[in-house]
Amino acid sequence: MLGIYDSHKYPFVIPSVYGRCWGSLMGKPLPMELRRRVVDFVEEGHMHRAAAAQFRVSIKFVNDMVILKRTTGSLAAKEQGNGVGMPRCRG
């Protein structure tokens, strides 16, 4: 089992304030602070690949955040799921 303190062995694992690693937050949006810092870094003139390496996120995440900021003006995560109280399957 990969622990929080193994990030020196596996650079793709970043300890978070939640006591977990970013890789284990599957299905949950990354923190707003990280989103803002990534977009600010790109807006300063850095390349998307440099931002991905700097903050240890995927290039797709950087691209998605820049596009989200450009289209909506916000970095808020989209609502997940199929709506409140809606059943997943009908049958």
Characterize this entry briefly.
Helices cover 37% and strands 0% of the residues. It is mostly helical and 91 residues long.
Provide structural commentary.
- The protein is mostly helical and 91 residues long.
- The chain folds into two domains: 1-28, no CATH class; 31-75.
- 37% of the residues lie in helices and 0% in strands.
- The chain has three helices and no strands.
- Helix 1 runs antiparallel to helix 2, helix 1 (32-43) packs across helix 3 (59-72) and helix 2 (48-55) crosses helix 3.
- The protein starts with 31 loop residues before the first helix and ends in a 19-residue tail after the last helix.
- The model is unreliable at 1-13 (pLDDT under 50).
**What gross morphology would you assign?**
elongated
By DSSP (H or I, 4+ residues per run), the number of helices equals 3
Largest β sheet strand count, sense and barrel closure: none
Secondary structural class: mainly alpha
Oligomer: single chain
Low-pLDDT segments: 1-13
| Rg from alpha-carbon coordinates | 16 Å
Instruction: Give the tally of β-strands.
Output: 0
Q: Report how far the terminal alpha carbons are from each other.
A: 39 Å
Strand content: under 5%
What helical percentage do the residues reach?
Answer: 25-40%
